[in-house]
Amino acid sequence: MSGNELYRKALLTISGNAIVEKLSKKYGKRLAGKFIAGDTLEQALDETAALNEKGILVTLDHLGEGISHLDEAAGYREEYIRMLDGIARRGVQSHVSLKPTQMGMALDTEACYRNVRAVAAKAKESKNFVRLDMENTPYTQATIDLVLRLHQDGLTNAGTVLQAYLHRSVKDAEEMIRKRVKLRLVKGAYKETTEHAIQSKAGVIDNFKTMIRMHLDKGYYTAIASHDDAIIEWVKQYAADNRIPKDAFEFQMLYGLRMSDQERLAQEGYRIRCYVPYGTMWYPYYTRRLAEKPANLMLVLRHMFH
User: Fold this and answer.
1) pTM exceeds 0.90
2) Residue 227 is assigned to a ligand binding site
3) Number of domains into which the chain is organized
4) Catalytic residue status for 184
5) Is 306 annotated as a binding residue?
6) Is there a contact between 92 and 44 (Cβ–Cβ < 8 Å)?
């Protein structure tokens, strides 16, 4: 196991400790602000407009994932409906991303479906798109089932995410392509067991490239979410070698990371979309960003001391 893999597992384990979480929430919000566009929708919409001016598309995400009551899910649903109204009102170029668990998936799958369906229906009214983020493995199949059910109900403006580190993801990608579900492809950022996930970096990258190639070869539009220079350059070269136009796919990166590189990709004529989260429920998102690689932690520490 590489040093980076050990670092990632250690940080995800530590971040799950109740004492660490309490201290992080008390002292860490200023640092988390590096990755989060603000507490409110209007702050996020302001940042979306600024990114659009630089040629960068956006997907907005209202932070939140673990809930204990369905009335919390209803609150998230209404925030997403306000978000879609705000996007239309401001005329900005942004999709929306949501987590099924914040809509109640762990509590009541039917209530979750109704909540997500309301958001997807609202998005369809305004000719927008909603992405169901993929969480850890207890919710993988349920999320796939949810997005397929939305498509069966005529809400084909909904898509989801597949994580390359899961053993099952190549087969899932084949199914999603057959059923014309738009995907964001990622390496994966949760702590998973060997039963469910590939543990080696090389194995994850091989799976990632296989899934990307499947989409590009079939001319099926996809989002490639990565900060890995080797992956980005490989995609650019593969597209050029196979005469795949730049508008046949998009790159996605996270808000607060490599913003100058996002601008550069836009200037080179590639479609680039920035994942812009906002809200007060920042801790789980923040710790996953730090766990992805040591450079993210070093970036935040430098920001703190400046």
Assistant:
1) no
2) yes
3) 1
4) yes
5) no
6) no
